[in-house]
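Marked as duplicate of an earlier ticket. Keeping the data here for the record.
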Amino acid sequence: MNYNTSEICDLFADSVDVVEPLFIHYGGVSSFGGEITTVKCYEDRGLVERVLSEPGEGKVLLIDGGGSSRRAIINALSAQDALDNGWEGIICYGSVRDVDALADIDIGILAVGSIPVNADCEGVGDVDIPVNFAGVTFLPEDHIYADSTGVVLSPEPLDLD
């Protein structure tokens, strides 16, 4: 589904939070949304890969990577795994790599930057906990909507029909 975050803000101004504009689009899809699953990790992609290997229909993985620009948490293999398992998108408060390959994968991917160095894969971090960055607190099962204009967060799914 295509989302228009400007229209969402007009229609639901009192019930959505607007995420600060920190992100760059890297995936092959610019508009995506769904229920969030959170991962908090720092320069470690192990939990991210585990979560993305699970079914993700209607979901967006929201990663609090501490904003690190030293190691990439998302790479082409994890993005393809996410697509293969039905995830709608990935929002990473951290970095990605394999930028040209990510652009060819039909999934939404937002991150704060890119770097060629891969993160560790030890599985250090937490899943499905509240995280806070970009001026917003994200709770597991909140709903997020992204397009080329921005990202908005809602505690409930929005009736956009």
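See parent ticket for discussion. The mean pLDDT is 97.
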